[in-house]
Amino acid sequence: RSNPDVFESRMEKRSEVKKQPVGHSKQGEFIRCMEEKARTIFFAEGLGSKTSKGGFTKHKTLDSILNVEMVKEKSAEEITQIWNQYFSAKDTVYAVIPADKFDLMWKRAQKCPSFLYALPRKEGYEFFVGQWSGTELHFTSLINVQTQGETAPSQLVLYHYPDLQKEKGIVLMTAEMDSKFLVVHDAQCLANQVQLFYATDRSETYGLVETFNHRSSEFKYMAVIAELEQSGLGRELRPGQASDKS
Questions:
Q1: 241 contacts: CB under 8 Å, gap ≥ 6
Q2: Is 42 among the domain residues?
Q3: Domain for residue 35, yes or no?
Q4: Could you report the per-residue pLDDT of 61-99, keeping only the tens digit for each?
Q5: If 96 and its partner were Cys, which of 13, 53, 80, 167 is the partner (CB 3.0–4.6 Å)?
Q6: From the DSSP assignment, how many helices (H) and strands (E) are in the chain?
Q7: What percent of the chain has pLDDT over 90?
Q8: Contacts of 228-232 spanning 24+ positions with Cβ under 8 A
Q9: Range of the domain at 117
Q10: What pTM value is reported for the model?
């Protein structure tokens, strides 16, 4: 009553709020803005990367994904949060691996660069061969290897980046996959198995990897399945069941 101009101004603002769509949130806008800012500041969005036959990136460096110099100012926890937040919105597999765990995996990969993994299906399992090439781990189905030999194309590649391992104590990992043959659920299952077999403290589990590489005539396919079932990974990652493993 005392100030008609102020009253009219408030009514206009109220009308504007009512016109906003249901679910409109300034906090949501802020989060989206911060995510976009993170992409702009920290991530290179794959600039300068080259794709090879089959659609996988050749010589994919961490610099082609992440502004390494920028994140060096961040703590390991902050880098982990940035990495996870960025890739959580993408249809892919990713991880931040503790340096000591990757050290163990890497030393074993030098001695035993290949292994046979079992991917749970609705009925039974499908076998995949995983082959380390530097810090890249390439997967292709066993049937492809049997029919095409060394020319069998990769269907999944896990990229491990130890660039920040010494300074920050973490190794970053992400992946590319052929979506005609695998979905993210499949890729996550195979990625989880890499740590199960290569980073285990259980000698019997890693013993399967050694047998596959150095005493192939003694290797038994069913031993891999038995190990998966014993660990619980096989049951948890069977299609139609949820997994709480990262």
A1: 235
A2: no
A3: no
A4: 898 888 888 888 899 999 999 999 989 888 899 999 999
A5: 80
A6: 11, 8
A7: 52
A8: 228/118, 228/120, 228/193, 228/196, 231/196, 231/205
A9: 61-235
A10: 0.76
